[in-house]
What does this fold into?
Amino acid sequence: KLARLRSTETADFDSTYMEMQEDAHDEAVTLFRDYAENGDVAALKTFAANTLPVLQQHEKMTNRLD
It folds into this structure.
């Protein structure tokens, strides 16, 4: 990902960076939601469930910046 940013034209840097942020937040929300619902370690399930709302808020914020 860093290599992709380094090779991005200056004019496209912001949009490329935001695209990568959106993708990363989407992936994090999916992973945490999945583990909160289906995880096999109780403490990690709790952590995932408690962290998920923060990740979802960050995801909403990155989507609004488009």
